[in-house]
Specification:
The structure holds 2 protein chains of 2 kinds.
Chain A: E1 7-9, E2 12-19, H1 25-36, H2 47-56, E3 65-68, E4 74-83, E5 86-94, H3 103-117, E6 122-128, H4 132-140, E7 144-154, E8 171-172, H5 175-183, H6 195-201, E9 204-209, E10 212-218, E11 222-228, H7 234-244, E12 249-256, H8 260-265, E13 269-280
Parallel strand pairs in A: 5-6, 11-12
Antiparallel strand pairs in A: 1-2, 2-3, 3-4, 4-5, 6-13, 7-12, 7-13, 8-9, 9-10, 10-11
Helix pairs in contact in A: 1-2
Chain B: E1 3-7, H1 11-23, E2 27-31, H2 34-43, E3 48-52, H3 60-67, E4 78-82, H4 86-95, E5 100-103, H5 111-119, H6 121-125
Parallel strand pairs in B: 1-2, 1-3, 3-4, 4-5
The chains are: A alpha+beta, B alpha/beta.
């Protein structure tokens, strides 16, 4: 960390923050992991995953913060993604042994201010369902819940076949076609699934069945981020993906609940859920 | 000596589990990330693999799925080592081909016996 002076706020005289850009990815990952160690769903990151997360999701490290107590010890972390005039509040966490001093509120209030300073007029975040302290804090600061988003998984395995679900005609989309499809999409994705995130992350593959398509991310070990043009045909398209990649594990974040039945029929189960919340800035 | 591979990123948790298992007569190797853990497993012949479901590079579930694709590991119990809510953990562990779960924080008095139970002939033939 460099020696740029920490900033404080009125009403939080024993707390200060510094820009997250003063820290290495390694240290940011460590701070984040520490803050989430006792979470309902711990999702640790190493430095590489933290760097990818920041790059893929347009997290602005100069607008993101690490908080300090009066002794100069790190107490928590909060990050801000910025796109157009929208701000995404993410990776918020307070280190367990340093909780109880309204650090979470200090982080969120400062991120809201940073969002305004960056001309954002709209804020959004996701909180894990069941994390009542965080949910209540965000409500208190003006965020309103808008929808439930599910995190679902499917272990490797062939998709069940059915006479009514012939996917043999599925063809691969070219990268140009994938870009064209993403440009034309009409769904309302969460921040993680917005076209910018998908294109930054890359490794996209797409399948087309008649007029319908599905685009997804495929790494060497996992499938993720399924996007459909016609949700009513999702069952067939999901099956087509798994028939093509039967050996890959699948984890899909932030699935809207109206798609759950289609995924469930293809062998998915719910890992946990998030509540998306919005704030007019 | 039975070798146990622990794939766990939390150093305190890994250290405690290792110490208990070593005292119970097991040899233990720890990998603190999924990729490293898989390398350790594939480079050795463990008697049991303990996998944290929340790892910093690859999800623990994905690690289990990949290990289960190696047929020579079929007889090796893979145990999910997790702080997830128990119901979800059971469902997830079963779906991914784990042989059981051990919920964190571990019960230090029972932990070695829990591991041994997965290694007994009764368990393996069931």
């Amino acid at each position: 960390m460099s020696n740029a002076p920490p900033q404080t706020n009125a009403g939080h005289s024993d707390q200060a923050f510094v820009k997250a850009s003063q820290y290495t990815f390694e240290t940011l990952a460590q701070l984040y992991n520490q803050s989430r160690i006792d979470y309902i769903v711990p999702m640790p990151m190493n430095a590489r995953r933290m760097e990818e997360y920041i790059l893929y999701n347009d997290v602005a490290l100069d607008a993101s913060i690490v908080t300090l107590n009066g002794s100069g010890e790190e107490t928590g972390i909060g990050m801000l993604g910025l796109r157009d005039r929208r701000a995404w509040f993410t990776r918020l966490g307070v280190i367990p042994e340093r909780r109880g001093h309204k650090v979470g509120q200090f982080i969120t209030e400062n991120l809201i201010q940073k969002a305004r300073n960056n001309d954002a007029t709209h804020g959004q975040l996701e909180v894990i369902e069941g994390n009542e302290p965080a949910f209540n804090l965000f409500r208190k600061l003006g965020f309103e819940p808008t929808r439930k988003l599910m995190v679902i998984r499917r272990p490797p395995g062939k998709a069940k076949t059915s006479a009514l679900s012939d996917t043999t005609g599925a063809t691969l989309l070219t990268q140009d076609e994938i870009h064209a499809c993403l440009t034309a999409r009409t769904d309302q994705p969460s921040w993680l699934d917005e076209t910018a995130s998908l294109l930054h992350a890359g490794m996209l593959e797409g399948l087309c069945l008649g007029d319908d398509w599905v685009i997804y991310r495929k790494t060497t070990v996992q499938l993720s981020a399924f996007i459909f043009n016609a949700p009513e045909n999702a069952p067939l398209l999901i099956r087509a993906v798994h028939q093509r990649h039967p050996m890959l594990d699948t984890k899909i974040e932030n699935v809207e609940t109206h798609l759950w039945a289609a995924y469930q029929a293809a062998g998915y189960f719910e890992a946990f859920a998030r509540i998306e919340m919005h704030l007019s800035l | 000596m039975n070798l146990i591979v622990i794939i766990e990123d939390n150093p305190d948790s890994a250290r405690l589990a290792s110490r208990i298992l070593q005292r119970a007569g097991f040899e233990v190797i720890v990998g603190d990330e999924g990729e490293l853990g898989m390398q350790i497993v594939l480079g050795n012949q463990p008697s049991l693999i303990l996998v944290d479901l929340g790892l910093p590079d690859i999800d623990g579930q994905t690690v289990v799925a990949m290990l289960r694709q190696h047929q020579h590991l079929d007889p090796v119990p893979i145990i999910a080592f997790t702080a997830w809510p128990e119901h979800t953990a059971h469902e997830m562990a079963a779906a991914y081909g784990c042989d059981g779960i051990i919920v964190k924080p571990i019960d230090t008095r029972r932990f070695a016996d829990q591991i041994k139970a997965f290694l007994t002939p009764d368990y393996r033939s069931s």
